[in-house]
Amino acid sequence: MDDTTFAVLGTGGIGRRTLDVARHKDGLTPVAACDRNGVAIDHQGLDVDELLDATEGNIASGPDEASGDTPATPTSDYASDGGAAAAEGATAGGGVKQAGEGAGIVASEQGEPTDAPIDDVIAESDAIDAVLLALPNLEHDFIPRIAERFADASYEGVLVDVLKRSRVIGMLDDREEALVESGITFVCGAGATPGFLTGAAALAAQSFVEVEEVKIWWGVGLKSGYEDNRGTVREDIAHLDGYDVETAREMSEGEIEALVDEHDGVLEFRDMEHADDVLLERAGICDAEDVTVGGVLDVRSDEKPTTTTVRVTGRTFDGERGTNAFELDDATSMEANVNGPALGYLKAAVLRNRAGDYGVYGPAEIMPSF
Amino acid sequence: MDDTTFAVLGTGGIGRRTLDVARHKDGLTPVAACDRNGVAIDHQGLDVDELLDATEGNIASGPDEASGDTPATPTSDYASDGGAAAAEGATAGGGVKQAGEGAGIVASEQGEPTDAPIDDVIAESDAIDAVLLALPNLEHDFIPRIAERFADASYEGVLVDVLKRSRVIGMLDDREEALVESGITFVCGAGATPGFLTGAAALAAQSFVEVEEVKIWWGVGLKSGYEDNRGTVREDIAHLDGYDVETAREMSEGEIEALVDEHDGVLEFRDMEHADDVLLERAGICDAEDVTVGGVLDVRSDEKPTTTTVRVTGRTFDGERGTNAFELDDATSMEANVNGPALGYLKAAVLRNRAGDYGVYGPAEIMPSF
C-alpha cells in the first residue's frame, strides 16, 4: 500500500494525539491540521514535533468561525472511548482551553492565521487521502455538514470521525448520495467504541454463522480528567435508571455532584442507547436488538473500575453454541484505544475508497467482511 | 459491496464446508467447484444443496491428474486449525476417501467429468472474483504452482489458501512478480491459524504503538477425527522435545502409538515453528521472533484440552504496558474457526484486488492496516 496522506481537523485532545500516535505508525503522513484560528499545511509532511510543542497547553477553542457554529459546552474526548457517554454534546476536543488571536495552531511556525480553516484544508484536499474529523462537538449535524462541504468541493477520499452518536449516522445516511457522487468514503465512530469494540465483535463473530448476542462492557477511570469531562458525565447520567436526556440536561452542577456522591463516584450503566448496535447491524454481524452496551465510570480513580470486554455468542455452522471474548488490559488508556484504531480504520478506509466503495460505513464494515 | 463469485478447488472437508458455510453468508455466490475427476460450473450460482448431498461420503481423492502431482499421505484438514501441525504434508482435503470414475463431484448432476479440472476452472475465471484453494496437500510447491497457472492465464482476482506452511509463503513470494503482473491478490493461511488468530492479534494490537509479544495458544480435541489425521499427528510429533521432522517421518505407526500412549493421548507443543510469526511481521504488527505458538492436542477426546487464546502485550503511546486477550469458546470447532474466517478474508481480499493491490498477503495484512 502506498503512503497515506491525512489531515486532522481540530487540534484538541484527539487531534493532537492522532498526530502523536501517527508518528509511531508506518505509511501515514500528516499533511494538514487546523483549529479555529489557523491552519498548517505541508504536502511533504508536517513537522509534528514542532507543531505539538508549539501548541501544547495552547489550544484554540470557542466558536468555529469558519463554520459559523456555536459550540456546545466543551467537555472532553473520553466520550469517544469506553462508551462513557451517549455522546450528544460531548466534544472531540479537550485539553487546556485558551482563546485569543495567538492561541492554537498559529503559535506553531507552520501555522497560518485564517478565517476559514476548514475551507483552507478543503482547497488543498486533492492531495489528501483522508481527513480525521476531531472537531469539538457542536450541533448534532455539525459533522454531517462538514462532510457536505467536502462533497460540495467534489472531494474524493476518506473522512473519519471518532464520535458515537447514533443520530449522526442517520444524518450522514441522509447525505449519502452526495458523498457517493463526490467519491467520499465516510467512516463514522472509528474510535474506541463503537470503533475498536465493534471491530472486535466482528472478528469474534467469525466462528459463527449466526450471532445471537453481543455484549459490550466498558470501564473508564476518570479522576484526573473529571473536571474536563463534566459535560460528558452529565450525559452519562441520562442513562441511569430514572433519568433521561432532558432531566440530566436540567440538573444543576450541585445536583450532579450530589448524585455522584450518592454513588461514591462510581456510576454503572446498563442497556445504554449506543451506536454499536446500529453499526453491527449495518455490518451484517447481528440485529441491533441483540447488542447490549454498558459499563462503569469511576470519577474518583484513574484506574478502570471494570475491565472492558466484548463477548460474542453465536451458533456455529455445525450446531454448537459458544461465546468468544475480547478483553482489553486495564492498563490501556481510553486515549490509546481511541487513536490507534482511528488511524487503523483510516488506512483501511483509504483502501475502500481506492476500490471505489463510497458512502457511509461503520468500523465493523471496514473489517474483513463476514 | 457487490456480490462476490467464488470457486472452490477441491471438495474434501474444507472445500465442502466452505460451500456449506457460504450458504449462511451474504453476498457470496459459489459458481465453480472441482475435484480430481470433475468440475461443476454455473455462473448463476451452484446448487450447493444438491452438490453436497450428491458427494457426501463420496469424495474423489488420489493423484490430481490435472496437475500431474503425486499426493503425500492424505491426512485431514485439522492441520489448518489450532496450529496442530507445522503442516508439511498435511492435506486440506479429508473426509471419506473414495476412488474410481464415479467418485466425487461427477456424482452430482452439476458435475462434468474432466481430465483437467483446474484448467477448466481457469478457463472460466474471467467471471470468478475469488478462488479458494482447498486442495489435498501434495508437494510443498503445489499451491504456488497452481497460483502460477492462474497467473499464466492472466487471471485477475483473488486466490486464498488455508494452509499454514511458512515455506509456502516464501515460494509464493518468489512468484510475486508474475502474480502482480496478472492482477492476482493471494492470501495465504486464511484459516483458523494463522488466519483467524493472527487477525485477532492484529486487532488486539490496536491499543499499542509497539507490540512486545504475541502468544498464540491453541487447543484441539481429535478423538473422532484421529484416524483421518494420523499424518498430521505425526508431523506434530516433530515439534516435541527430542524430535524433528526427519525423526518423526521415520517413525513406524507402532512407535507413534507408543508415544501417544506414553502421553495418555495428550500432546503438548511449545515454541512451534509456525507461519503466524512471519505473517505478523509482514503485517507490521511485531517482529517474528516476538511471536510464540503452542498448544495441546488431545487425540482421545473431542473436547478441547485447553482454550485457544491470543495474547498481545505491548506499550501504549502514553507509556503503559498491557496485554489484550482474545479467547475462543471451547465449543467452537476447528472447522467453524477455519471456514468462517477463510470466507471473510476472501471477501476482504476481493476489495483489495479491486483497489489494485496485487501480490502475496497474509491474513493480518487484510485487516485494517495498523
Automatic annotation (TrEMBL), chains A, B:
Segments forming a coiled coil: none
Pathway(s) where this gene product acts: Cofactor biosynthesis; biotin biosynthesis
InterPro entries assigned to the protein according to its UniProt record, in alphabetical order: BioU-like, NAD(P)-bd_dom_sf
Molecular function per GO: NAD binding; NADP binding; transaminase activity
EC number: 2.6.1.121
Binding-site list for NAD(+): 10-14, 231-232
UniProt key word Transferase: yes
Gene Ontology process terms (BP): biotin biosynthetic process
Domain of life: Archaea
Enzyme active site: 164 (nucleophile), 235 (proton acceptor), 239 (proton donor and proton acceptor)
Residues modified to Allysine: 164
Top-rank EC class of the record's enzyme: transferase
Keyword Transferase tagged: yes
Family of this protein: Belongs to the BioU family.
Job description of the protein: A 'suicide' enzyme that participates in biotin synthesis. Catalyzes the formation of (S)-8-amino-7-oxononanoate (DAN-carbamic acid) from (7R,8S)-8-amino-7-(carboxyamino)nonanoate (DAN), a function equivalent to the cannonical BioA reaction and the first half-reaction of BioD. The cellular requirement for biotin is thought be low enough that this single turnover enzyme supplies a sufficient amount of the cofactor.
Other notes: In cannonical biotin synthesis a pimeloyl-conjugate is transformed into biotin by the subsequent action of BioF, BioA, BioD and BioB. This enzyme replaces BioA and performs the first half-reaction of BioD.
Assembly notes: Monomer.
Entry protein name: (S)-8-amino-7-oxononanoate synthase BioU
